[in-house]
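Try it yourself: sequence plus nicotinamide-adenine-dinucleotide, in.
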Amino acid sequence: MTSAILVLPGDNIGPEIIDEAVKVLRAVIVKFGLDVEIKFADLGGAAFDKAGEPCPSDTMALAHQSRAILLGAVGGPKWDGLERELRPEQGLLKLRSQLGLFANLRPAIMYPQLCTTSSLKPEIVSGLDILIIRELVGGIYFGEPRGIRVLENGEREGFNTYKYSESEIRRIGRVAFEAALIRGRRLCSVDKSNVLEATALWRETITELASEYPAVELAHMYVDNAAMQLIKEPKQFDVVVTGNMFGDILSDAAAMLTGSIGMLPSASLDKNGRGLYEPCHGSAPDIVGTQKANPLATILSVAMMMRYSFHRTDIADTIELAVNEVLDNGLRTPDIMSDSMTMVTTREIGDAVTARI
Ligand code: NAD
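Structure, out:
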């Protein structure tokens, strides 16, 4: 794998937020003397418009050759009428599945400067810094057999299969222990082992793995309790690891503790540390071209890229510190605006972060 970074601006606000993130990326490349090459390609509606498909083979080939991929967002009403396999979102799904991205990392960080944007009390969420690690390609969302069948009495029955093999559990477990090592060294594994055998094996396997990571303090929690604790006392968590379905729900709940969609980065990693980095939000067609889009989630995705694909915690810290300073200085895009702050454009907030690098 080379040290190339592939940038996929995507659709609607995608190119606007990517412009700012790439400025930051170029600034850290220069400041830290990184030996990486940035390449660009199309994904989503932009790719369909040029090549007639949402994830063309040249984009996929470049993705396979890259250490990390930075994505803006894809989709929008312009392409909603296309048949399913040609829609922009299908391009992203193809990219994720063909790259084998099995580990989804979603931090929920509450910047103290923004704690009035949360629906919870500031003292509960101020200083919050959780990383939710969700297994992305297994569990009940993919388990076979699945379907809807007709029973002997004529009634229909829907069914799915929840299963995880030991190797699947160990693979995501390692990502979680490694992440805990470079954070607060506390890992909470979430399951429903009192009811589901598949997650009893999950708990057993994660417990066994813990012996390889003596520096990490491991705890277990049932998913129903984890949901309550996230709302009641979210700051008790450092890294949380869980399966696909529980992670889907808990990561959205944790993200919303922070209250602002424009601030949430994410990473999806393969077994070699190659990652797809993207903001959690969509392509926001309602604000395209207005310079109202918040680019900070995408800029913070660059920080995650440095931390997880380039193992450069120092660079990640530098980017996150720059974002913090910009917030300290009162600069805000409309989505995070509050009294007595200064409203700025997408470009101005990107420039401010870049200047601090
Ligand atoms: P959305 O996240 O694009 O927008 C929801 C709301 O949040 C909108 O009001 C939007 O203006 C606002 N918003 C989103 N990002 C923002 C930002 N950075 N700064 C300020 N405000 C922001 O969700 P949606 O409207 O449901 O979807 C729009 C399109 O995006 C759809 O085509 C959908 O399929 C696609 N989508 C793509 C991805 C992705 O690329 N990963 C994810 C979700 C949705």
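One thing you can check immediately is this: The mean pLDDT is 95.
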